[in-house]
Amino acid sequence: MMLQGLLEMMYPQQRAYCKKKGIKMTYIDLEYNPTGNDLVCKFFVEPHGNHSIEDACEDIAAESSIGTWTDVSTMEQGIFERLGPHVFRIDKGSGEVLLAYPSELFEPNNMPQILSSVAGNIFGMKAVDNLRLIDIELPENLVKSFQGPLYGIEGIRKLLDVKNRPLVGTIVKPKLGLGYKKHAEVAYESWVGGCDIVKDDENLTNQAFNPFKERIIETLKMRDQAEEETGEKKIYMPNISAETDEMVRRAHFVKENNGRYIMVDIVTVGFSGLQSIREKNPGLVIHAHRAMHAAFTRNKKQGISMLVLAKLARIIGVDQIHIGTAVGKMEGGRREVTQIRDAIVGDLYGLKTTFPVSSGGLHPGHIPPLVDIMGGDVIIQAGGGVHGHPEGTQKGAVAMRQALDATMQKIPLKEYAKTHAELNLAIQKWGTV
Amino acid sequence: MMLQGLLEMMYPQQRAYCKKKGIKMTYIDLEYNPTGNDLVCKFFVEPHGNHSIEDACEDIAAESSIGTWTDVSTMEQGIFERLGPHVFRIDKGSGEVLLAYPSELFEPNNMPQILSSVAGNIFGMKAVDNLRLIDIELPENLVKSFQGPLYGIEGIRKLLDVKNRPLVGTIVKPKLGLGYKKHAEVAYESWVGGCDIVKDDENLTNQAFNPFKERIIETLKMRDQAEEETGEKKIYMPNISAETDEMVRRAHFVKENNGRYIMVDIVTVGFSGLQSIREKNPGLVIHAHRAMHAAFTRNKKQGISMLVLAKLARIIGVDQIHIGTAVGKMEGGRREVTQIRDAIVGDLYGLKTTFPVSSGGLHPGHIPPLVDIMGGDVIIQAGGGVHGHPEGTQKGAVAMRQALDATMQKIPLKEYAKTHAELNLAIQKWGTV
Fold first, then answer.
1. CA of B69 to nearest chain A CA: how many angstroms apart?
2. pLDDT digits (tens, 9 = 90+) for B380-430
3. N or C: at which end does chain B have fewer Cβ atoms within 10 angstroms?
4. How close does chain B come to A329, measured CA to CA in Å?
């Protein structure tokens, strides 16, 4: 108990010490206006016990930058003045606070370092019961130290020669288990039915039942055939997630076999590997799957928001990213999803945009509300919603395109379904919204 | 509302469909005994709304392996039999369940793929309100596909020539801001005072105020001097966290300058980068810092446990890892910390051990209870608890060693402090426990 009392005293002790030594050492400065040199974070803060939010903010500011839990003899006023962050807004009602960090604290082009600072130890501090990094804004010099997307929405639309509608994709199902020949067949049926895109599932990489190289060769062969038959550009997104060098080798293999896309599970791969594949990317479109994100994004009081993850992924340079559906099997409501969409398609120091992807439990019946929410610049992916069609994969893909056609023409699905049998069957099975 | 009803029906629908087609498709098999070929996960499950825990388990099993939210025409009985996971324990009281996954689902030596399966989309499913991966056991073939630690506790003890006591380390403070010359001086004082180890902070990498190369050269020079003066082996752990290739270049630079250790922020670097640095490690000891872990480990109902992270880090091959203090500034209680300790020092198919590190808000007063909790095989790191000593860094390091000496001799700190002035000052400032 004595220790607990001491621990609770420590940060105030640090401040008292600094005062004594003439070192101005409060991080709170509500008069402060962030400059173009600052990295700005918005946190939700729930202080521990009967601590004040101000005390919690001091601790967060210290631990995420230059401080520690006690006064140290090695501290200098100059460091504090040059590198100290500023807590410049505290909203006691919502628990939301804004911190500005001088960009000198950060290493350019090093996302792990940036996160180890502003999203590192602070989540584990006893001084807070809950802490969440809600939003982040990097200053121009840090943003530009990363590569950003190579294609962006514009480049992807050019590549596919599709101008004015959402793209439609599917994921080969079952998630795992098909051999590579069957995998390629399912992909082919999806394409000729009307899908623009076929992607691997997030847990399919290079397993014995479906080896990577054989899958790439066979699936891209079927893609060529589908392109010839439909006269449309078709996309295959193979999941290259692995150890970094292996990932790079896989990307090159895709390129050598005339693939145009790679897919990366950006959370389980991690930020170092993601930066590497972006830097060594041999000209391919990078599709970012977010598997595992909800381990830290879901609880709205703790962890890191999907908004932050999506923004950082764009800055590193993914061309497409899953941001939620608002209507499918995964959590993530309308407001959250549109906020993320706005962030990755908006202006950011001249960076290209990232194409929003909605995926997870979708079927044709979801398309009208989804397009209503997301607008035209969205990639709509349905796995079960294609292969689960009563008449199989190809008809499932047809139904998806019909649903999209109806939506673009503003015709209610039920009406369009009267003259479109595949859509009608899909609606009978899964309904409309 | 109609859609919501449909969504709630979907997984049961899949099962009904499979039943109709003669495909046995429940993943629950309480008679199942895991084999040596299975990867076993323990989850905490809180089903959504009035769903049963059995239904939630079916959904988790499907989404983390071969299934999806609806029946698909491409499903085959053979896939289900070969690759289907088994839910073999359900404890309705605690909400804890055990799942066994056939190892064929996973790619050897690919941690991102393993996590995208068993710790991927499932955290975001609407079917659960909370889900946590509590524990994981990989089968021998998967464990051995990774490298494991190069040194382990035994190798590190040999390297340092310290047999029977915990190691004592510090972190240069303030966290950021010192120039490289001052950084090296602070390190030197720490070593000659008695620290075995000096490490960089998790957010110090290669910033303009303290460039990496200059810091390495200068600090290792001071290390040599400290070794000469003390006759002890001294360790510097530079933080190499960065994009993968840059990280590898930094490791080689450390090696070329006669460093023996590197430090990696394993969570913000990520699993691909961690595997890469382990595979390309030029013979150095790898110290794993866990900054950002609490974003997904802290909430005990959601995310992934620190136990899982520590186990996977050992399998990939880190030699040391932060596992908590039970007594310092970070959350993580005694039971959790000792459980992680047991896991990383225990038998695992002949893999070397990982040295447990306790760091975060520690000072000399913590050493007796910490050694009581952790045993002798622990690395005790104090940053503020060294540099915050009333007489400065060197005396702070002396006090840490004195506290350790007293603890090893089972003398109460207050008694030992009567004849050890540095310890006495530390206790006056921070107390004992």
1. 6
2. 999 999 999 999 999 999 999 999 999 999 999 999 999 999 999 999 999
3. N
4. 6
Does the beta-carbon distance from A431 to B6 stay under 8 Å? yes
User: How many C-beta atoms lie closer than 10 Å to residue B158's C-beta?
Assistant: 12
Crossing angle of helices A306-316/A111-118, nearest 10°?
Answer: 160
Q: Among this protein's residues, is A173 annotated catalytic?
A: yes
The pTM for the full model equals 0.94
| Alpha-carbon radius of gyration of chain A | 25
Bridge partners of A39, per DSSP, are A101
Q: Could you say which of B80, B111, B276 has the minimum Cβ distance to residue A245?
A: B276
Is B395 part of the annotated catalytic residue set?
no
Task: Indicate the pLDDT class of residue B67, thresholds 50, 70 and 90.
Answer: confident
Looking at the complex, report in whole angstroms how far the Cα of residue A81 sits from the nearest Cα belonging to chain B: 10
| Chain centroid to CA A262 | 16
Q: How far is CA B284 from the centre of its chain?
A: 18
pLDDT tens string B320-337: 999 998 886 666 688 999
Chain A residue numbers touching B389 (CB-CB < 8 A):
73
**Which residues on A lie below 8 Å from B393 (Cβ)?**
73-74
- Please, what sign has the CA dihedral across residues B69, B70, B71, B72? negative
If you search the block for the tokens 């340079």, which residue do you land on?
Answer: A317
Are the C-beta atoms of residues A61 and A67 closer than 8 Å to each other?
yes
Which residues, at least 6 apart from A116, have a Cβ–Cβ distance to it below 8 Å? B202, B203, B241, B265, B268, B289, B291, B292
| Inter-chain CB proximity A7 and B329 less than 8 Å | yes
Q: Which CATH number applies to A152-430?
A: 3.20.20.110
Q: Cβ contacts (< 8 Å) between B383 and chain A: which residues?
A: 68, 72
Cα nearest neighbour of A295 on chain B: B303
Domain chopping of chain A, boundaries: 3-143, 152-430
Which residues of chain B make contact with A37, given a CB cutoff of 8 A? none
Query: Distance from A287 to chain B by nearest Cα, in Å?
Result: 15
Segments of chain A with pLDDT less than 50 = 1-10
Instruction: Select the residue from B23, B77, B116, B212 to test the A interface by mutation, using most A Cβ atoms within 10 A.
Output: B116
Per-residue CA distances from B218 to A103, B187, B233, B259, B263 (Å): 25, 10, 17, 11, 17
For residue B275, pLDDT over 50 is answered with yes
Whether A324 and A309 have beta carbons less than 8 Å apart is answered as no
Angstrom distance (rounded) from CA A345 to CA A352: 8
Average the pLDDT over each of A24-28, B244-248, B290-294 and give the range with the smallest value.
Answer: A24-28
pLDDT band, very low/low/confident/very high, at B344 (cuts 50, 70, 90): very high
Catalytic residue chosen out of the listed positions B42, B51, B86, B173? B173
| Average pLDDT value for chain B | 93
pLDDT at A157: 98
Structure tokens of A63?
Answer: 């631990």
**How many residues would you count in chain A?**
433
Containing B317, the helix (H) or strand (E) segment is none
Confidence category of residue B12, pLDDT binned at 50, 70, 90: low
Q: What SS3 state is found at A144? A: coil
| CATH class belonging to B3-143 | alpha beta
